[in-house]
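Before the break, one more example. Copy the sequence into your notebook; we will annotate it together after we see the structure.
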Amino acid sequence: MSIQILIDMNLSPDWVAELAKQGLTSVHWSTVGDPRATDREIMDWARSHGYTVFTHDLDFGTMLALTHSSGPSVIQVRGQDVLPDSMAPTVVAAVKQHQSDLDSGALVVVDRSKSRVRILPI
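Here is what the structure looks like once it is written out:
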């Protein structure tokens, strides 16, 4: 099963094309939901539609920890420059490296130098 990625509003819609170049299926939240939706609404949509949330927002990881939820999986990109031109190779490598964890429920935190995985529930 190939991972499906839901890109949060705080990341550029340009991520969709960049991830597609690497064979990854993704949608930007602005094309499937209300741009003013709460993080909870985004998480609920991702869970019910089988998507992994891709975000720059720390709140998603916090929400997973506080609720002890087993999903949806979250990929959290960290750093100053989170545009695809800068971070795509690192993010794609992390997604491919941790795909089985993401498929079963994980929080993957990616920064320029490394990625870390927390298996859900936290």
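The mean pLDDT is 95. The CA atoms of residues 10 and 57 lie 7 Å apart. Try to locate both features in your own notes.
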